[in-house]
Amino acid sequence: MSLIVQKYGGTSIGDIERIEQVAEKVAGFRANGDDIVVVVSAMSGETNRLIELAHEVQKRPLPREMDVLVSTGEQVTTALLTMALNERGVKAKSYTGSQVRIHTDSAHTKARIREIDDERLHRDLKAGFVLVVAGFQGADEEGNITTLGRGGSDTTAVALAAVLKADECQIYTDVDGVYTTDPRVVDSARRLSKVTFEEMLEMASMGSKVLQIRAVEFAGKYNVPLRVLHSFKEGPGTLITTEDDRKMETPTIAGIAFNRDEAKLTIEGVPDTPGVAYQILGPIGNANIEVDVIVQNISHDNTVDFTFTVSRTELPRAEEILNEVARDIKAAKVSSNNKIAKVSVVGVGMRSHAGVASQMFEALAEVGINILMITTSEIKISVIVEEKFLELAVRALHSSFGLDAEPSNESED
Amino acid sequence: MSLIVQKYGGTSIGDIERIEQVAEKVAGFRANGDDIVVVVSAMSGETNRLIELAHEVQKRPLPREMDVLVSTGEQVTTALLTMALNERGVKAKSYTGSQVRIHTDSAHTKARIREIDDERLHRDLKAGFVLVVAGFQGADEEGNITTLGRGGSDTTAVALAAVLKADECQIYTDVDGVYTTDPRVVDSARRLSKVTFEEMLEMASMGSKVLQIRAVEFAGKYNVPLRVLHSFKEGPGTLITTEDDRKMETPTIAGIAFNRDEAKLTIEGVPDTPGVAYQILGPIGNANIEVDVIVQNISHDNTVDFTFTVSRTELPRAEEILNEVARDIKAAKVSSNNKIAKVSVVGVGMRSHAGVASQMFEALAEVGINILMITTSEIKISVIVEEKFLELAVRALHSSFGLDAEPSNESED
Asked: Which listed residue, A188, A306, B114, B388, has the most CB atoms within 10 A of its CB?
C-alpha cells in the first residue's frame, strides 16, 4: 500500500464533468488500496474571474484581500470533488490551506510555505479518508489567508508529499509527460520516461510550462519522487528524480529547450572603469526587470560593449532606463533587438561528456545559423539566435544529439 | 462616537456597483467618527449558483462539504467590499467566520452560534479598522467550516452586536422599515418608527420576511437595539426594541400580519380517549411537518373533531399520514382545504387592553367574513378565513385598529 499525493490543475477540473472524471480516477486508486491525498486548483477560469472582480473595485487590490478573494476558488473545488468522491462511495474530506494547516510567511499573493501540521492529515488518512486539499493557499502566523502565487498548487502538492513522506507526488496536467523538446516544433520529439530535477529546472525555466519551478526545486530539495502525467490519458508519464536513479546509458542530452520571449539590449562604447557593470545593470534590477543572458566583450580602446537579454514585454521600460544610464556614464550608443530567441541543450550528462558545446555549434553551423550570444552552465548551453531560425535550430539540435524518437523501442522502465 | 454593526444582504451587494455604493455609505459613517463592523452576505445569486453546482455532483450533498462550498460566497464579498473601502481611503479588514472566530456547534448547514472571540475584533477596531465580516458562517470546535442556514447573516450581525456591546445593529434591506401591514394589500399601510421584539417575532413568523426570526430572538435575548433600513434610500427605518422604550400613546395594535401559505386538515369522529391528540399529531411531527393552528372541538357522542393547519406544500404528505392515522384509530373521516389564509392582529398593547378580540371579530363580521378557526396568544390574535377574503380582512382590520396612515403627522421620534 502506497501513499500518493496527486495534484489536478485547473483544466483537469475545469467543469463538473471533469471533476467527476477525476473522482472516478481517484476512486480507482483508492480501490487499489492506496492512500490518496488530492491537491486541487480552482476550476479553470475561476481565478481570473475573481481577479477581474477585484480590479473592478480597486486599481491595485489590497494583497491581503486578494488572497481572501482568490483562495475561494480552490475551496469550491475541494468541496465539489469531495462530494463527487462521496457519491462514488469513497470516504473523503476537504481541507482549506488554513485547516491543514499550511503555515506560510505573510507575503500576501506570493507567500512561502514554512511548515505543515501533518497530525490531522495522518489521523484522517488512518481513518480511511481520501484527503482533498486546496492548493495554492495557506495561513500566516496570525491566521490571515495567504496564497503561494500562480501555479502554487504544484508547490502545495510537493510540500505535502515531503511532509507526509509520500511514495510519489503525481502532477496531472494536459500533457502526458516531459518531452525532449516541444512536439509542435519537432515531430519526432520523444517523451522522457525519466529526467533529473536539475534538468527539469533548466527545461522549466526555458518555457516548458509543465511544472512550476518552485515545485521542482522543492521536490529536489526534499527528494520527493515527482511524476508528470496526463489527467485523462493512460500512460506512465515522466518521473522526475535524482541523478542517481539514471541508467548508465542515459543519453548525454535530455532535451532541447527554447524561449521566444527574449529581447536584447546593447550599450556600446562604455568607458571601461571598475563598477561599470553595476552602473548599467543596477538600475535595471531596481526596476524589477529580470536580466537573463549577459555578455561583456573584451575592452578595446578603453571602452567595452555590454549586451543583455530581458523578456520582450520589459524591453520598452528597459530601453528607457538604459538610455538614461548611457547619458550618465557617457556611453556611445544604445541599441535593441526583439527578434531573437534562445535555444538550449540541457542534460546532466554533459558534466562528464566533453564536446557538447562544439557539437552544438557545429550542428547550428551546418544549417547556417549565426550565433548572437552564448551562455553556459554545468548542465546547459544556451545560444541566442535570430528568431526566424528558432525552429530550424531546435530541429537540428534535436537530431544531432540523437533525441529523435525511434518509433518501436522506447523502454518504459 | 458609537459602535454600529451593519448588515447588508445579497441584493444590497448584488454586483460590483452595489458593493461600491455600500462602500460609499460605510465611508460616510466612518467620516462621522463611528466605529463600524459590516456583516455581508454573498452577492445575490451566488449561493444558489454554488448549491446548484453541488447538486450536479451529488444528489444529497455532504453537509460538511456544502458548508465549505457555500461559505465561499460571503468570503468573496468581504474581500471585494474591503478593497472598495480601501480604494476610498478607509482602513478596512475582512474576516471569515473562522477567523473572527465565530464558534458554532457542528450542525452543518444549520449551525448555532455558541461563542464569539471578540479580542481580535476589539484590537482591530481600536487600530481604526472598519471590520468586514462574512455573515452566515462560523467554525466548530474542530475548525470545520459551518453555516448558520439561510438568512443566517442577520444572526451573525446581531450576535456580533451583542458581543461587542454595539450601540445599534442595523439591518439594511430592500424595504425601508417594518409596516403596519403589507403595503401591496393596504395602500395606507404605515411604516412603524418603533416595534417591540415580541411584535416583530409575531410579524416575522406571519410572513413579513424583513428579518430572520432567529436574529430577532437573539436581539431580544441580548437586548440589542435592532434597526431595519433601506440600503439605498435615506430614512430612519424601524427600530426594534424592548417594550420599555415605547411611549404611553403607543396604539394597542402594531400591525396586521397575514399568511397565504396555509392549508387545513380535519379528522372527524375521533373516539375521545386519552392520548388521542398525540396519536394524531405525533406521526405528523415525526414526518417533520410543522403544525400551526390546532383546534379540537368539544366532545360530542364520545367522539371529537380535530382540525389543524400546515403549510400548503406539506398538505399532500400530511393528508397521506392522516389517512393512515384515521384507519388506525378508527376515525370517521379526513378532509382538507388549501384555500384558506391566516390573518393576525399583533401588538404588545393588547396585554393591557381588553376587547381586542371582540373588536377584531366585529370588524370582520361587518364586512361579512366568516371565521373558520381562531387562535390567540398574549400579543396576537389569529383567525383562519377563506383565502378569497384575505385582502378584505386585512384592510378592514387595518382601518378598524386605526393603523391607516395620516399623511401629515407621522412623528419620527
From this structure: A306
Nearest Cα of chain B lies from the Cα of A60 at a distance, in angstroms, of 9
- Looking at residue A279, which CATH number applies to its domain? 3.30.2130.10
Q: Is B100 inside a domain boundary? A: yes
- Interchain pair A16, B72: CB under 8 A: no
Residue partners of A211: CB distance under 8 A and separation at least 6: A154, A171, A200, A204, A226, A228, A240
Single-letter residue type at A151: G
Q: By C-alpha distance, which of A13, A154, A37 is closest to A100?
A: A37
Q: Is the pTM higher than 0.90?
A: no
CB contact under 8 A, A75 and B72: yes
Tally of domains in chain A: 2
What pLDDT tens digit does each residue of chain B (413 aa) get?
Answer: 799 999 998 889 999 999 999 999 999 999 999 999 999 999 989 999 999 999 999 999 999 999 999 999 999 999 999 999 999 999 999 999 999 999 999 999 999 999 999 999 999 999 999 999 999 999 999 999 999 976 799 999 999 999 999 999 999 998 888 889 888 889 899 898 998 888 888 876 555 567 778 888 889 989 999 999 999 999 999 999 886 555 555 557 889 999 888 999 999 988 888 777 888 888 998 888 888 888 887 777 888 888 999 999 999 999 999 999 999 998 989 999 999 999 999 988 787 777 888 889 999 999 999 998 888 888 889 999 999 999 999 999 999 998 987 644 444 44
Asked if B145 lies within 8 A of A16 by C-beta distance, the reply is: no
Among the listed residues B272, B328, B283, B274, the one whose alpha carbon sits nearest the alpha carbon of residue B308: B283
CA angle at B383 for the pair B380 and B388, rounded to the nearest 5°: 135
- Candidates B20, B53, B87; nearest CB to A80: B53
Task: Say whether both A169 and A260 belong to one domain.
Answer: no
Taking contacts as CB-CB distances below 8 angstroms, the residues of chain A near B86 are: 58, 62, 65
Buried b (16+ CB within 10 A) or exposed e, A311-329: beebbeebbebbeebbeeb
Work out the minimum CA distance from B219 to partner chain A, whole angstroms: 30
- Could B54 and A19 be called an inter-chain contact, meaning their C-beta atoms sit closer than 8 Å? no
Q: What's the maximum distance between 2 C-alpha atoms anywhere in chain A?
A: 79
User: Which chain B residues touch A84 with a CB distance below 8 Å?
Assistant: 57-58
Residue B83 maps to which CATH number?
Answer: 3.40.1160.10
Q: Provide residues of B within 8 Å CB-CB of chain A.
A: 16, 19-20, 50, 53-54, 56-59, 61-62, 64-66, 68-69, 71-72, 75-76, 78-80, 82-84, 86-87, 93-94, 96, 98-99, 143-145
Please identify, among A149, A174, A199, the residue that sits at the C-terminal boundary of a domain.
A174
Residue A165's domain comprises 3-174
Claim to verify: residue A297 and residue A154 sit in the same structural domain: no
- The ipTM is 0.78
Q: How many CB atoms lie within 10 A of CB B397?
A: 28
When CB atoms are compared, the residue of A62, A83, A98 closest to B57 is: A83
Of the three residues A129, A155, A174, the one that is the final residue of a domain is: A174
B110: nearest Cα among B50, B150, B60: B150
Instruction: Give B9's DSSP letter.
Output: -
